[in-house]
Write a structure and sequence with these properties.
Strand content: 15-25%
Strand order of the largest sheet: 2-1-3-4-5
Structural class: alpha/beta
Helix content: 25-40%
Largest sheet: 5 strands, parallel
Shape: globular
Order of helices and strands: EHHEHEHEEH
Number of strands: 5
Protein backbone atom coordinates (compact mmCIF):
# COMPACT_ATOMS: atom_id res chain seq x y z
CA UNK A 1 0.00 0.00 0.00
CA UNK A 2 1.55 3.29 -1.16
CA UNK A 3 0.61 6.53 0.58
CA UNK A 4 1.73 9.99 -0.52
CA UNK A 5 2.05 12.56 2.29
CA UNK A 6 1.94 16.13 1.02
CA UNK A 7 2.75 19.19 3.12
CA UNK A 8 2.06 22.71 1.96
CA UNK A 9 3.54 26.14 2.54
CA UNK A 10 5.54 27.04 5.63
CA UNK A 11 5.44 23.52 7.07
CA UNK A 12 9.16 23.31 6.27
CA UNK A 13 9.52 25.93 9.04
CA UNK A 14 8.02 23.77 11.80
CA UNK A 15 10.11 23.89 14.95
CA UNK A 16 10.90 27.54 14.27
CA UNK A 17 7.56 28.98 13.18
CA UNK A 18 5.13 29.94 15.97
CA UNK A 19 6.22 27.23 18.42
CA UNK A 20 3.47 28.25 20.85
CA UNK A 21 0.97 27.01 18.25
CA UNK A 22 2.87 24.29 16.39
CA UNK A 23 5.43 23.13 18.95
CA UNK A 24 9.14 22.48 18.48
CA UNK A 25 9.02 19.36 16.33
CA UNK A 26 10.30 19.77 12.80
CA UNK A 27 8.63 18.38 9.71
CA UNK A 28 11.41 15.78 9.58
CA UNK A 29 10.58 14.73 13.17
CA UNK A 30 6.89 14.34 12.30
CA UNK A 31 7.69 12.35 9.16
CA UNK A 32 10.02 10.03 11.05
CA UNK A 33 7.33 9.37 13.68
CA UNK A 34 4.80 8.68 10.92
CA UNK A 35 7.19 6.20 9.25
CA UNK A 36 7.59 4.34 12.55
CA UNK A 37 3.82 4.33 13.12
CA UNK A 38 3.22 3.00 9.60
CA UNK A 39 5.60 0.08 10.25
CA UNK A 40 3.74 -0.77 13.45
CA UNK A 41 0.39 -0.56 11.68
CA UNK A 42 1.35 -2.68 8.66
CA UNK A 43 4.86 -3.33 7.44
CA UNK A 44 3.65 -3.21 3.83
CA UNK A 45 2.76 0.51 4.01
CA UNK A 46 5.12 2.63 1.92
CA UNK A 47 5.16 6.36 2.59
CA UNK A 48 6.51 9.05 0.30
CA UNK A 49 6.82 12.61 1.59
CA UNK A 50 6.60 15.85 -0.38
CA UNK A 51 6.62 19.46 0.78
CA UNK A 52 6.27 22.61 -1.28
CA UNK A 53 5.55 26.27 -0.75
CA UNK A 54 4.19 26.49 -4.30
CA UNK A 55 0.61 25.69 -5.26
CA UNK A 56 1.46 24.50 -8.77
CA UNK A 57 4.08 22.05 -7.50
CA UNK A 58 1.49 20.56 -5.13
CA UNK A 59 -1.00 20.23 -8.00
CA UNK A 60 1.67 18.57 -10.16
CA UNK A 61 2.55 16.13 -7.35
CA UNK A 62 -1.10 15.17 -6.86
CA UNK A 63 -1.53 14.61 -10.59
CA UNK A 64 1.63 12.49 -10.74
CA UNK A 65 0.17 10.26 -7.99
CA UNK A 66 -2.48 8.91 -10.37
CA UNK A 67 -1.98 5.19 -10.89
CA UNK A 68 1.01 5.16 -8.49
CA UNK A 69 -0.41 5.77 -5.00
CA UNK A 70 -3.32 4.16 -3.17
CA UNK A 71 -3.95 7.13 -0.89
CA UNK A 72 -2.96 10.70 -0.08
CA UNK A 73 -2.58 12.47 3.23
CA UNK A 74 -2.43 16.21 2.65
CA UNK A 75 -1.77 19.16 4.92
CA UNK A 76 -2.45 21.97 2.47
CA UNK A 77 -1.67 24.56 5.18
CA UNK A 78 -2.77 28.05 4.05
CA UNK A 79 -3.90 26.65 0.69
CA UNK A 80 -6.70 24.90 2.60
CA UNK A 81 -8.66 28.13 2.54
CA UNK A 82 -7.72 29.42 -0.90
CA UNK A 83 -6.89 26.70 -3.43
CA UNK A 84 -9.56 25.53 -5.80
CA UNK A 85 -6.68 24.18 -7.93
CA UNK A 86 -5.54 21.72 -5.23
CA UNK A 87 -9.14 20.67 -4.54
CA UNK A 88 -9.68 20.08 -8.27
CA UNK A 89 -6.45 18.08 -8.50
CA UNK A 90 -7.53 15.78 -5.68
CA UNK A 91 -10.91 15.29 -7.33
CA UNK A 92 -9.30 14.63 -10.73
CA UNK A 93 -7.06 11.75 -9.63
CA UNK A 94 -9.80 9.93 -7.68
CA UNK A 95 -7.36 8.75 -5.00
CA UNK A 96 -8.73 8.39 -1.47
CA UNK A 97 -7.37 11.38 0.45
CA UNK A 98 -7.42 12.74 3.99
CA UNK A 99 -6.87 16.39 4.89
CA UNK A 100 -4.78 16.92 8.01
CA UNK A 101 -3.90 19.91 10.21
CA UNK A 102 -1.69 20.23 13.25
CA UNK A 103 -3.93 22.89 14.81
CA UNK A 104 -7.69 22.99 15.10
CA UNK A 105 -8.56 25.26 12.19
CA UNK A 106 -12.05 25.76 13.61
CA UNK A 107 -10.73 27.35 16.82
CA UNK A 108 -8.62 29.87 14.92
CA UNK A 109 -9.45 32.93 12.82
CA UNK A 110 -12.76 32.70 11.02
CA UNK A 111 -11.20 32.70 7.55
CA UNK A 112 -9.52 29.39 8.48
CA UNK A 113 -12.87 27.69 9.14
CA UNK A 114 -13.45 27.10 5.42
CA UNK A 115 -11.66 24.33 3.53
CA UNK A 116 -11.81 23.95 -0.22
CA UNK A 117 -9.95 20.64 0.15
CA UNK A 118 -12.04 18.74 2.74
CA UNK A 119 -15.08 18.18 0.49
CA UNK A 120 -12.84 16.31 -1.97
CA UNK A 121 -11.45 14.05 0.78
CA UNK A 122 -12.84 11.05 2.64
CA UNK A 123 -12.06 12.77 5.94
CA UNK A 124 -10.32 15.52 7.83
CA UNK A 125 -8.24 15.39 11.03
CA UNK A 126 -7.33 18.62 12.80
CA UNK A 127 -6.08 19.78 16.15
CA UNK A 128 -4.02 16.86 17.44
CA UNK A 129 -0.57 18.21 16.57
CA UNK A 130 1.74 15.51 15.16
CA UNK A 131 -0.81 12.83 16.03
CA UNK A 132 -3.16 14.28 13.41
CA UNK A 133 -0.97 12.57 10.80
CA UNK A 134 -1.15 9.23 12.61
CA UNK A 135 -4.94 9.48 12.89
CA UNK A 136 -5.16 10.31 9.19
CA UNK A 137 -3.00 7.30 8.31
CA UNK A 138 -5.04 4.98 10.54
CA UNK A 139 -8.30 6.15 8.95
CA UNK A 140 -6.96 5.96 5.42
CA UNK A 141 -5.48 2.53 6.06
CA UNK A 142 -8.84 1.30 7.35
CA UNK A 143 -10.63 2.51 4.23
CA UNK A 144 -8.02 1.13 1.81
CA UNK A 145 -7.61 -2.24 3.54
Amino acid sequence: MKILVINGPNLNMLGIREPEMYGYLTLDNIQEELKNYAKQLDNSIELEFFQSNFEGEIVDKIQSAFGVFDGIIINPAAYTHTSVAIADAIASVNIKSVEVHLSNIYSREEFRHNSFIAPKCIGQVAGFSKDSYKMALLGLYGVLK
